[in-house]
Amino acid sequence: MPTFPDHALALTIGEPGGIGPDITAQAWLAFRADPSLAFFLIGDSAYLSERFSRLDIAVPVQEIATPAEAPGVFATALPVIDLPFASKPETGRFSAETAGTVIRAIDMAVDMALKGEVAAIVTNPIQKEALYAAGFSHQGHTDYLAHLAVHHGHHAEPVMMLCAADLRAIPVTVHIALTEVPRQLTGDLIVRQARVVAHDLARRFGIASPRLAFTGLNPHAGENGAMGQEEQTIIAPALAALRAEGLNVQGPLPADTAFHAEARAQYDAILCMYHDQALIPVKTLDFHGGVNCTLGLPFIRTSPDHGTALSLAGTGKANPKSLMAAISLAAEIARRGQPA
Ligand SMILES: NC(=O)C1=CN([C@@H]2O[C@H](COP(=O)(O)OP(=O)(O)OC[C@H]3O[C@@H](n4cnc5c(N)ncnc54)[C@H](O)[C@@H]3O)[C@@H](O)[C@H]2O)C=CC1
Ligand SMILES: NCC(=O)COP(=O)(O)O
Asked: Keywords assigned by UniProt (predicted)?
């Protein structure tokens, strides 16, 4: 397992028309004096230099050929592995024309992680609709990273976990229409995700016997079937199976009362039945400190909790703290290592 300070973190450029370049520059300014947080960016160095020159900050860019060069450069310049765009991105706009290169940056980072050349991957936000328009057939990074890992011969069972100060929330179903949720929510899906969460909270977060909570799907967790059946037919049986395996589980809890401070103190992570049930509390509690961490991969991946914020790109107004928190968490997990 590669660790700091020998191995740097690989950052991917994400949507070039969005705030990724700006917050990466700000993160470098904040962290450049700390070799334990050394990172490099995979992106178009000429475009990045031009973007930075328009912000009121001095961020020199230095091209590197390999990840191993990054720690030696990090204190004086933002190390960049050059990956030029075929067509010039437009700040504040997304384009399907750059999507292939955006995906290529992710491919390269995964390749480096699987070869043990980097300590972890931190992804800048992608514009999902731009990638979809270019033929990308995955929901987002989370399932694409797992696809790449499997393609390279590894096992992967991807789980999206959003972390705020004292809340870790997992959407069991992710980027699907709300009408699809009852159709795609199964006991098997809940059980498989809970196993990954329990395993990775122990392995990556040092929580030996994590306490897992689960929300219901319906208002008041269905109120004994009066407001929906999924709690009784899908969620409760899945929890019973997990209990039989020795996992510490509670629920299904009514989602509306599962996130206040006293409730949060009762669990280490909460598995929620759909995207907004998990992400609204995280982003409300800690929008600028929230981190998206993928569990179930053979490498470490974190990301800011927010998206591309196109309207802020190039303005200098994007807050870099979520990306900084993502970098810090990736470094912390890498330092902890991976006990078997
Ligand atoms: N990990 C990833 O790749 C993610 C990608 N996305 C993608 O981003 C695109 C835009 O999604 P939206 O729903 O509009 O979410 P968004 O997070 O880009 O923007 C939501 C609101 O938060 C503000 N905001 C976001 N980041 C900020 C920052 N660092 N500092 C200050 N304000 C900030 C924006 O200006 C906007 O008002 C979509 O294509 C979505 O799929 C969204 C979330 C994560
Ligand atoms: N809403 C979370 C999000 O869009 C992140 O998705 P991913 O790209 O990390 O899979």
From this structure: Oxidoreductase
pLDDT digits (tens, 9 = 90+) for 76-109: 999 999 999 989 999 999 999 999 999 999 999 9
Indicate whether residue 303 lines ligand 2 (CB < 6 A): yes
The ligand that comes nearest to the alpha carbon of residue 145 is 2
Residues 279 and 208 both lie in one domain: yes
Q: Which numbered atom of ligand 1 lies nearest the CA of 129?
A: 39
Q: Which ligand is nearest to the CA of 123?
A: 1
What residue type is assigned to position 166 of the chain?
D
Shared domain for 29 and 121, answered yes or no, is yes
Tally of domains in the chain: 2
Query: 120 with 209, same domain?
Result: no
Task: Tell me which of 123, 141, 162, 287 to substitute to probe ligand 2's pocket, judged by most ligand atoms within 8 Å of the beta carbon.
Answer: 141
- pTM for the whole thing? 0.96
pLDDT tens digit string along 309-330?
999 999 999 999 999 999 999 9
